[in-house]
Design brief:
A hairpin with a 2-residue loop joins strand 26 (281-286) and strand 27. The protein is globular, with a radius of gyration of 18 Å. Helices cover 0% and strands 46% of the residues. By secondary structure, the chain is mainly β. The chain has strands spanning 4-6, 22-26, 31-37, 42-47, 52-57, 63-68, 73-78, 84-88, 93-97, 103-107, 109-110, 113-114, 121-123, 129-132, 156-159, 166-170, 176-181, 187-192, 203-209, 221-226, 234-236, 242-246, 249-253, 259-264, 269-275, 281-286, 289-294. It has a single domain (26-240), classed as 6 Propeller (Neuraminidase). The protein starts with a strand and ends in a 7-residue tail after the last strand. The protein binds magnesium ion. Magnesium ion binds next to strand 17. Residues 32, 75, 119-120, 177-178, 232-233, 271 line the site of magnesium ion (MG).
Amino acid sequence: MGTVLIHDPRFARLVIGHAHLEKLWTGGRWLEGPVYMPAARHLLFSDIPNDRLMRFDEGSGQVSVFWPGCGFHNGHARDHQGRLISCEHRARVVSRIEHDGSRRVLASRWQGKRFNSPNDVIVAPDGAIWFSDPTYGIDGDYEGDRAESEIGASHVYRRDPDSGAIEAVITDRVKPNGLALSPDGQFLMVADTGRSHQPDWPVTLTRYRLDAKGLPIQPGETFSTLAEGFYDGFRFDAEGHLWTSAGRSVHCYGPDGTLGITIEIGEIVGNLCFGGPKRNRLFICAQTSLYALFVNVQGAT
Ligand code: MG
């Protein structure tokens, strides 16, 4: 655990030689959805099968249960006002916690049908909320409540910041999962974990160019593929490198798709995000444990 492999010398400067992978906490069943809240200096993350939202407090180093019985949250994001945006498996919605603590549902249906189980969510610079909607939260009772898909497909959706209208923007994936917008505003990156349901389906990150209105153009182009395991969640750093879960490791790719760095974690990585006051600490949610590594670059968000 913690071995850092540099595949391309151009990436060596992103790694701090004497920094080491820290295991901050263990004891979860399947960790996901990390989001750093700068004003509180804490990291929130999901422990989905245990139906709880956890909190790592940077000041004390302690991890505690933040919200027991939250409703099987998966992915999270922080909006431009610092509010928590959540993907809820049980309610099959995307919601927001307002400053007064109340919960507001932002997205619950598309064309009159309930979503499957929103998985990953991002907030775009214009305030639009983008989220993926595979079926993992309704496939069984482990990560939500078993149910049939009403939509019958798994898409990526965009909620308009002004009208609240919801539009399907990516419709050519089997199980769209992790999402990120490139810091130059040119691309949307989407992970596809469709191999969980179709054994011959390739594990890919697909890059979609955005048109003049900021909407993705289908089909996208394959950015990278993974032979073993899955890509799930990921983030860009401010220089355009993509840091992603990749099976039991974290991979860092250059903007052209070159694999530059592998960080071996030793258990299946679900998601990651940048945090800390300088946004230079990579927080990694893997299967049972929360890890962190300081890096020599800042997260884009
Ligand atoms: Mg995910």
